[in-house]
Amino acid sequence: MATDVCEREINRLVASQSQRDLRALVMSAPVPMCIYRGVEFKVEAVNDLMMDLWQGTRTMNTAALHHVFHNGVSYSYAENGITYNYTPLGSGIASVSGVCVMAVKQS
Questions:
Q1: % of the chain with per-residue pLDDT over 90
Q2: 87 φψ region: left (φ > 0), alpha (ψ -120 to 50), beta (else)
Q3: What pLDDT is attached to residue 56?
Q4: Which of 81, 43, 90 is nearest to 62 (CA)?
């Protein structure tokens, strides 16, 4: 019993640290970046570069978010001179917990 509790607590701490590390990465990234979590696609982290790109709005191609979240595969598309790259977060289709979005302005 004690071993199970210890393993669970260690796993919880590791997952918590991973989330903090991912958030720190997003916030310090030199490219526009954000993280959406859950099937409701709540914004977990968004850096200032992405906010500037969106010009204060949080609109995003929800069809692409749904595709990546439910299929567990990366997806890219270009719109208005910006390429958006969507990457599933998790380990496999059954455990996708969110989507990381990065944007690159095309020259």
A1: 28
A2: beta
A3: 53
A4: 43
| Confidence band for 32, pLDDT divided at 50, 70 and 90 | very high
pTM tops 0.90, yes or no = no
Distance CA 70, CA 59 (A): 20
Q: Are 26 and 45 in contact (CB under 8 A)?
A: yes
Are 55 and 64 in contact by the 8 Å Cβ rule? The answer is: no
Q: Strands, E, within 1-107: which ranges?
A: 33-37, 42-46, 75-79, 82-89, 98-105
Token digits of residue 82 = 């910006």
Q: Give CA–CA dist 100/44, Å, rounded.
A: 10
Nearest to 31 by CA among 85, 74, 73: 85
Please tell me the predicted confidence (pLDDT) of residue 47.
92
Tokens (6 digits) for 37: 């979590």
